[in-house]
Amino acid sequence: MISNNYAYFDIRYALITHKTVIEQSGGLAGVKNQGYLESVLDHIQNDGYYPELVDKITHLVHSVIKIHAFNDGNKRAGIALGSYFLELNGHDYSVLKFTAEMENIVVWVAENKIDKDLLKELIESILYEDDYSEELKLKLISAISN
């Protein structure tokens, strides 16, 4: 089951984005495993697994960080690609907030302090709420304190 309701980008865009991230902020250029990245970009198009925007962007960001498809800049690329995905899908109003909030969150994801489920809750809150709920704040504090 492939989605027709969302806009996507291809591997070329992802590679160009990563190259730009490295050129602008430094680091080691290059790709370790393009196939992993292609797989992520294909999977988010499957509405059976990722039916909603939050599901898709969570998988995109989490996977880019965790699969280490790039030699360097995986966290930064995850934020950049997630931001672009939001923009493509009419959520350009939330890109600045998403980018700012994700700067710390991606570090905690990389350190295995934030799992994919908590990441999804955080992204959902960033997109649809003014601030994290008290319950979500407590979950975040508990996760990063361990």
Task: Reconstruct the topology from this structure.
Blueprint: H1 11-25, H2 34-43, H3 53-67, H4 74-88, H5 95-110, H6 116-128, H7 134-145
Helix pairs in contact: 1-4, 2-3, 3-4, 3-6, 4-5, 5-6
Structural account:
- 29% of the residues are buried.
- Helix content is 66%, strand content 0%.
- It has 7 helices and no strands.
- By secondary structure, the chain is an all-alpha fold.
List keywords for this structure.
single chain; 146 residues; mainly alpha; 7 helices
Summarize the structure.
With 146 residues, this protein is mainly alpha-helical. Helices cover 66% and strands 0% of the residues.
Shape: globular
Distance between the termini: 39 Å
DSSP summary, beta strand count: 0
The percent range for helix content is 55-70%
Query: DSSP helix count?
Result: 7
Which regions are unreliable across 5 or more consecutive residues at pLDDT < 50?
none
Q: Mean of the pLDDT scores?
A: 95
Structural class: mainly alpha
State which percent range the strand residues make up. Answer: under 5%
What oligomeric state is this?
A: single chain
Order of helices and strands: HHHHHHH
Radius of gyration: 15 Å
Largest sheet entry = none
